[in-house]
Design goal:
Layout: H1 4-21, H2 50-58
């Protein structure tokens, strides 16, 4: 015979198995392969005035 503790463990494991078996699933199907178009344009424009350009030419190791 099963004692109270064994019966509780058995009942809980059965409940967990039952809930896991009935969990809903969602399936997504595509007719053709999924295509992702990503246009990445990273244009960085640095405008330096004439005085700063001259300073950089005189001291090339500033940065």
């Amino acid at each position: 015979m099963l004692d109270k503790r064994q019966f509780t463990i058995l009942a809980l494991s059965g409940a967990v198995a039952g809930v896991a078996a009935c969990s809903p699933t969602v399936k997504v199907a595509f007719d053709k392969p999924l295509e992702i178009n990503a246009n990445l344009n990273a244009n960085i424009h640095i405008k330096l005035d004439a005085e700063l350009q001259k300073l950089l030419q005189q001291n090339p190791n500033l940065f």
